[in-house]
Amino acid sequence: MQLMQRTGVFLAVVFIIIAIIGIWLSPDSIITPEIHQRFQPPSANFWLGTDQYGRDIFGMLVLGAGNSLLISVCAVLGGGFVGSILAVLIWMLGIKTLHKILNFISHGLMAFPALLVALVLSAYYQPGFITVVTAIAFYNIPVFAKITLAILGQLQRNDYAKAAMALGQGKGGILMKHHLKPLFAILIIQFAVQVSFAILAEAGLSYLGFGINYPYVSWGKMLFDSQTFIYDNPWLVIWPGICISMAILAFQLSAEWLRKKLDIRD
Question: How many domains does the chain have?
Answer without folding.
Answer: 1
